[in-house]
Specification:
Blueprint (H helix, E strand, L loop, with lengths): L2 H19 L8 H36 L4 H7 L2 H5 L2 H14 L5 H34 L10 H24 L3 H7 L4 H7 L1 H16 L7 E4 L4 E8 L3 E6 L4 E5 L2 H4 L3 E2 L1 H5 L3 E9 L9 H7 L6 H18 L14 H14 L11 E4 L7 E9 L4 H18 L21
Antiparallel strand pairs: 1-2, 1-5, 2-3, 3-4, 6-8, 7-8
Helix pairs in contact: 2-5, 5-6, 6-7
Length: 422
């Protein structure tokens, strides 16, 4: 039996039942159309319920029992559930021609509705697949090198545009090619509407190709008051969680057009830099006398340094025939130079510093605040809290050792400006 014969049999069957209630009903009557539409809708609903039952009871259980993770991620993104919507669309497209005449306008409307339903269901399925690809990619090692969130969003946008064009072509009964050719007239408007999207897409390609940024990177952008970790790099926006736990959202293209400090280099290096100076009061700097040198010789870190320097100075004075008591011509150690030598040895023996990276103690140009003595080294521990603790411990020690070398830290005297207390 052909499809046309099957359709006529079903139509006659429906008319026989309608004649029991409405003797004058025929295939072009309103009562027949209502009955046929109810049957089509009922078949679609029943097929959807059966499909969902199979998906939830069979497919879902099978996916959750397997050892692979990709099917679990498909289930989490509702892939199987969305696939169930294809069946009702197919049922409508198959059943409607069997119940309605082929020259009926109602049949044409129902067929277009089924095509719209199928297009929307297909778009949802594609979106679930793309979400699954993104989730699987995030668990791989490549995710730390280049994010693909922007590319996934671009793919979603392209498929959405395609589906919208198909829907419009179905509604106006025109070819999608004609719609595409007509879009050139509104290209300028589209460029304005999708300006951020286009700029974000181009920026996303630059970011991925050059590995400029990635999720988890610590960035600082003073212009936007951003200082924290990147949570997500999207097509148009970047989400950053600042250290005060606030969330900042900024355009994706700003990462390539604005000044951004990325701390990833520090995170991937062997240490985090400590660069801080303490200001020495110039009035406390003086030559070391014999008592001071004897006292310094008892300090473990610089005992050999004191001995070596005293031997060099003694040899120099003997060769130059200079009396060591001659303050104008003799050479002497200073408490500041000795303290600087002590700090270098102290840093070289510090167990929490990376000794393979630059370590030094240097003088900066003096100013009205004294002589800056800067410590430049790298903490082996890059964790923020631990790093701050190591840095504080070092300068606690520096400040505490100043009196032992006869030095004072510069501190502005504000007694004259303080109000009197009655």
């Amino acid at each position: 039996m052909s499809m046309i014969e099957e359709a006529s049999v079903l139509q006659e069957f429906i008319l026989d039942y309608l004649h029991m209630v409405m003797p004058n009903a025929d295939i072009s009557s309103l009562s027949y159309y209502i009955t046929a539409l109810m049957l089509v809708g009922l078949c679609a609903i029943v097929s959807l319920l059966i499909t969902r039952f199979i998906v939830s009871e069979r497919v879902t259980r099978f996916a959750l029992k397997t050892r692979t993770d990709w099917d679990d991620i498909l289930h989490k993104n509702h892939f199987f559930r969305r696939c169930g919507h294809i069946v009702p669309a197919i049922v409508i497209a198959v059943v409607a021609p069997l119940l309605l005449s082929h020259d009926s306008r109602v049949l044409l409307i129902i067929e277009r509705i089924s095509m719209l339903y199928l297009a929307i269901a297909s778009l949802l399925i594609i979106s679930a697949v793309l979400n699954t690809i993104e989730d699987i990619y995030k668990t791989s090692r490549l995710a730390k090198r280049a994010p693909i969130t922007g590319f996934i969003q671009v793919a979603k946008l392209l498929f959405t545009i395609i589906v919208i064009l198909l829907i419009i072509s179905l509604l106006i009964n025109k070819s999608p090619v004609i719609l595409l050719s007509g879009m050139t007239a509104i290209a300028a408007v589209l460029l304005l509407v999708f300006r951020d999207t286009i700029l974000g897409f181009v920026a996303g390609i630059q970011i991925a190709a050059n590995r400029m940024f990635n999720t988890g990177d610590w960035i600082a952008m003073p212009k936007y008051e951003v200082d924290g970790e990147i949570l997500e790099i999207g097509l148009t926006n970047v989400k950053v969680q600042n250290w005060d736990k606030t969330i900042s959202t900024l355009p994706t293209y700003s990462l390539t057009t604005e000044a951004v400090k990325n701390w990833r280099g520090m995170s991937e290096s062997g240490g985090r830099r400590i660069k801080r100076a303490i200001h020495i009061d110039l009035r406390s700097v003086r030559f070391c006398d014999e008592d001071m040198l004897k006292s310094f010789a008892n300090i473990r870190y610089i005992s050999s340094y004191i001995e070596t320097k005293r031997h060099e100075l003694r040899h120099y004075h003997q060769e130059s025939k200079i009396d060591e008591s001659d303050l104008l011509n003799s050479r002497k150690l200073t408490n500041l130079g000795t303290f600087r030598a002590y700090l270098e040895k102290y840093l070289r023996n510090h167990t929490k510093l990376n000794q393979e990276m630059t370590t030094m103690v240097r003088q900066l140009p003096p100013s009205e605040l004294g002589l800056p003595l800067e410590i430049y080294c790298f903490s082996a521990n890059k964790n923020w809290v631990d790093y701050e603790g190591i840095q504080a411990d070092i300068f606690d020690h520096v400040v505490s050792m100043l009196p032992l070398f006869g030095l004072r830290a510069y501190q502005r005297d504000n007694i004259a400006t303080m109000p009197e207390v009655n």
